[in-house]
Every structure is written in structure tokens, then in C-alpha cells.
């Protein structure tokens, strides 16, 4: 199963200048719990936004740079299809960004785990529109803003129809 996982604002904003535009600790915990011990696929810029590889996950980085050096335990490839082919077929694989990789993966994914952040922000990277003809919302869990979360947000799970 291929799952897209992202956090996007009401205007589909993902980030700006290769960084997130909010800090939501509970969303980080959810991301960690869902992706730990799985393969994660990302673009080079997303990978470079991390201070180091995320623990207990196999990283596959999509890049056009043939000589791109990655730490041990990480892999590179030059296309989304090749990245998916590296992943075990019997385990869930996560697409974790960025915007272009999300756009390419919308036709290939089986599930979307989207954290909808209830604000609109300025951004340079956006999540693609979710077409209701292709996706069914199967779960929605609201989280109000609090002392640790600047914005209200909702965990949304979509399954391909």
C-alpha cells in the first residue's frame, strides 16, 4: 500500500523556503508513529530539510543528481516509479513530500493521511487538490489549538475509491 502523508493549510500550503510554517507536536508524534519501521519516499529538498535521517525508517530520495551522496541506509533514485519499486510490496510505503512528489504520487497512492491545519499561510509549496471523485474520506479527528498548538487541525484519512 502506498500512503501519502502530509500536513497542509486550508489553502493547501505545505511550507516555505524548504521548511514547515507551523509547529504541531501532536502531528509530529502521529507522523512518527505511522512511518516508523517503514520505507519513506521523498524529494531531495525534503530530505535536505531534515537535520539527519529520521530514525527507524528507510529513506528513498528522488533526485536528478547522479552523484548525490546520502548516509548509509538511505537510497537514491531518479523517479517516483523507481523509488516505489525499491519498497517491499507487502508493507505500507509512505510518500512524505515535497510538493512535486505529492503531485506525481496522487495517481499511484492508495491512501492519504492529511493533517488539515485550519489556517491560511503564505507558502511556496502546496499540496495537490484532493478530487472527491477519486477519494473517499473515511476518518476525521479534530484537534483544537492549545498551549502547544498554535492552530486547530484535523487528521483526515482518505482511501482511493
Structure notes:
The chain has helices spanning 25-35, 44-48, 80-86, 99-105; strands at residues 2-9, 13-16, 19-20, 39-43, 58-62, 74-77, 93-95, 111-117, 125-126, 135-143, 153-160. With 161 residues, the chain is an alpha/beta fold. It has one domain: Dihydrofolate Reductase, subunit A (3-Layer(aba) Sandwich). It has an eight-stranded mixed sheet, sandwiched between helices. The protein has a three-stranded antiparallel sheet with strand order 3-2-9, with no helix packed on it.
What attributes does this structure have?
alpha/beta, Dihydrofolate Reductase, subunit A, 4 helices, globular
Tally the structural domains.
1
In CATH's first tier, which class applies?
Alpha Beta
Arithmetic mean pLDDT? 96
* Overall spatial form: globular
**Biggest sheet record:** 8 strands, mixed
List the helices and strands and how they pair.
Elements: E1 2-9, E2 13-16, E3 19-20, H1 25-35, E4 39-43, H2 44-48, E5 58-62, E6 74-77, H3 80-86, E7 93-95, H4 99-105, E8 111-117, E9 125-126, E10 135-143, E11 153-160
Task: Please give a quick description of this structure.
Keywords: NADP, One-carbon metabolism, Oxidoreductase. This protein is α/β, with parallel strands linked by helices and 161 residues long.
